[in-house]
Each structure stands twice: as structure tokens, then as C-alpha cells.
Amino acid sequence: MIKTYTGIVHGNAIELEGEPNLPDGQQVTVTVQPLLSRALTPGEGLRRSAGGWNDDPAGLEAYLEWNRQQRKQSRREIEK
User: Fold this and answer.
1) Most exposed: 8, 12, 44, 64, by fewest CB within 10 Å?
2) Is the pLDDT of residue 74 over 70?
3) For the chain, which residues make up each domain, given as ranges?
């Protein structure tokens, strides 16, 4: 019996919006396909791509500055 459910991804888990009526521990095959029925609001794609920093812009800026400093330390001087 094949049924189609919609759900929401939470990290490594998918919360189904309906009850699958399967016993706990039942192995299943899952095909994941994002729903494209709603348009993203302006900036939503960028927020999603920011990952863990989407709500911590100060943390992102601190990491980027740390990364810049690390790159400067490992650069060789250019011989003239």
C-alpha cells in the first residue's frame, strides 16, 4: 500500500502531517521532494542558505573575521 504524506523537515527527521498507521520500527522507503506550491518571501532563500547563522549575524561576522585573519597568517610574502 503506497500513501503520500506531506511533512516538515527538522534536521535529520521528517514530521509527517498525517498518521502513517504503521507499527513502530517498520522499515519504509522515503522519497523526498520539496513542495514548491508557495513562493518564498523576499530574503527567505538567503536566510535558508545561511544555515545555523540565519539568526546570529554577529556570530557569522565573527567567524568571517576569524577566517580572514587565518588566511593572512598563512600567506607567503610576494618576492619582488
Assistant:
1) 12
2) no
3) 7-73
Burial 17-30 (b: 16+ CB within 10 A, else e): eeeeeeeeeeeeee
Residue partners of 51: CB distance under 8 A and separation at least 6: none
Q: Which amino acid type is present at position 57?
A: P
Residue 35 grid coordinates: 513542495
Distance CA 36, CA 1 (A): 26
pTM: 0.39
Q: How far apart are CA 52 and CA 59, in angstroms?
A: 10
What whole-number distance in Å separates Cα of residue 27 and Cα of residue 73?
51
pLDDT tens-digit map of 7-29? 888 888 889 988 888 899 999 88
pLDDT value at residue 79: 82
